[in-house]
Task: inverse folding
């Protein structure tokens, strides 16, 4: 199978397995966390086109990281791309380097992302058998499926709505251009606000808070995961009624320990020449 | 057990402020387990790891000094690699920055076994994100060791 077909099939299977239908995927972070059981973090690092997926094979724990950004559609395609890597199990040693090359695995993950975000049947259901597909239609697809005009254009072309020439022309359009022109720039700004918001990996954070309650983690660990100051984290935990459990340890007095009787006879026999003093020392250390 | 207990005693004796005082708490248990994981370490790399943890926790050097009871000049020398950090100091820094001792001493094995799939233009620009995600893996590994169950 070529990367395109493989990406398409896997995207369809993912939607089917998780009962996602053919509808647009709203909060992609939550969908990935809940459906794929993979932790997602939106981080305050690096240039915004970046995504990284990392796995601990020992616990089979997977974390997807994407940068916070003013480009919400790009962040969504990065997230979907990384999910593709998780599903295809494209694992490499962390020190391998040479990332971002146009290898078949990268292409496959990109195809998966496109088909996951805009499934052809979902697009057909949305557009129907409309004859004239214009830039206004493109804008509606972008707004509805929350993808870049480039991805929407490829999907429209693959579904046979536009010809190659139109595809080439539309691919250079940007989301802000369409949003302004077709009157949904307010919604676009709301999407920008969301994608530029830092977001802690929810499952890990919940587990860490459990660890905090059990007293095995300091509040600072929660603050570090969330990327906020210690006081803010402490205040938030306190207000939510989350406090570390008191761990009472009952100390025992060594004198209360029972006398331990150890029969050193067999050892003495083996050692062959025991005297009384050695035997009592051995018994003492045995009791310790 | 006796080794870690001595370490806890020595930490108390050194007067690290953040140290829980007279009662034996879960935090101390945390620290005892952490100490067991420390094997060997080099001064400069520990300094760098401590500085990274400090930054990840959003603490200034002064704030970290206050939180740990280590004097700021001492902390600065530890970070620059001029002075070897003592175990109680590392433990106090770990607690104050929300990191594990293994992370600060570079003895964690998570980074060695971690695998990744990436999308980027070049390697160097991925470092920050990689560090952030490795921190999550380390924390997850630690919680796994502590038998803290996943709640969701």
Result:
């Amino acid at each position: 199978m070529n990367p395109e077909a493989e990406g398409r099939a896997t995207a369809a299977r993912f939607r089917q397995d998780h009962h996602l239908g053919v509808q647009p995927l709203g909060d992609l972070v939550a969908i990935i966390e809940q459906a794929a059981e993979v932790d997602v973090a939106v981080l305050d690092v690096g240039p915004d086109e970046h995504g990284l997926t990392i796995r601990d094979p020992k616990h089979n724990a997977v974390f997807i990281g994407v940068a916070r950004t003013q480009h919400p559609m790009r962040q969504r395609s990065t997230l979907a791309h990384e999910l593709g890597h998780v599903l295809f199990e494209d694992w490499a040693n962390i020190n391998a380097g040479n990332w971002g090359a146009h290898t078949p695995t990268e292409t496959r993950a990109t195809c998966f992302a496109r088909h996951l975000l805009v499934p052809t049947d979902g697009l057909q259901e949305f557009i129907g058998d409309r004859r004239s597909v214009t830039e206004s239609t493109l804008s509606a697809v972008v707004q509805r499926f929350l993808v870049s005009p480039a991805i929407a254009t490829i999907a429209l072309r693959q579904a046979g709505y536009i010809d190659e020439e139109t595809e080439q022309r539309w691919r250079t359009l940007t989301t802000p251009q369409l949003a302004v022109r077709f009157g949904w720039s307010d919604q676009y700004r709301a999407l920008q606000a969301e994608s530029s918001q830092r977001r802690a990996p929810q499952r890990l954070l919940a587990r860490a808070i459990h660890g905090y309650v059990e007293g095995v983690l300091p509040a600072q660990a929660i603050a570090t995961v969330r990327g906020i100051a210690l006081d803010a984290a402490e205040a938030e935990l306190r207000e939510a009624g989350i406090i570390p459990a008191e761990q009472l340890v009952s100390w025992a007095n060594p004198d209360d320990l029972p006398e331990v009787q150890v029969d050193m006879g067999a050892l003495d026999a083996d050692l062959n020449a025991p005297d009384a003093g050695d035997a009592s020392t051995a018994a003492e250390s045995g009791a310790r | 057990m006796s080794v870690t207990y001595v370490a806890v005693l020595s930490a108390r004796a050194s007067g690290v402020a953040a140290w829980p005082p007279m009662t034996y708490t879960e935090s101390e248990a945390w620290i005892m387990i952490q100490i067991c994981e420390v094997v060997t370490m080099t001064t400069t790399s520990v300094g760098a790891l401590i500085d990274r943890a400090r930054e990840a926790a959003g603490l200034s050097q002064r704030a970290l000094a206050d939180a740990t009871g280590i004097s700021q000049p001492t902390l600065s020398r530890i970070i620059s690699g001029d002075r070897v950090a003592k175990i109680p100091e590392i433990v106090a820094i770990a607690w104050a920055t929300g990191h594990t001792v293994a992370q600060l001493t570079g003895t964690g094995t998570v980074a060695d076994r971690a695998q990744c799939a990436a999308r980027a233009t070049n390697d160097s620009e991925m470092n920050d994100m990689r560090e952030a995600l490795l921190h999550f893996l380390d924390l997850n590994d630690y919680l796994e060791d502590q038998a803290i169950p996943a709640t969701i």
Remarks:
- Residues 1-23, 36-41 of chain B have pLDDT under 50 and may be disordered.
- The first helix of chain B runs from residue 2 to 13.
- The first strand of chain B starts at residue 115 and ends at 119.
- Chain B touches chain A through 50 residues (CB under 8 Å).
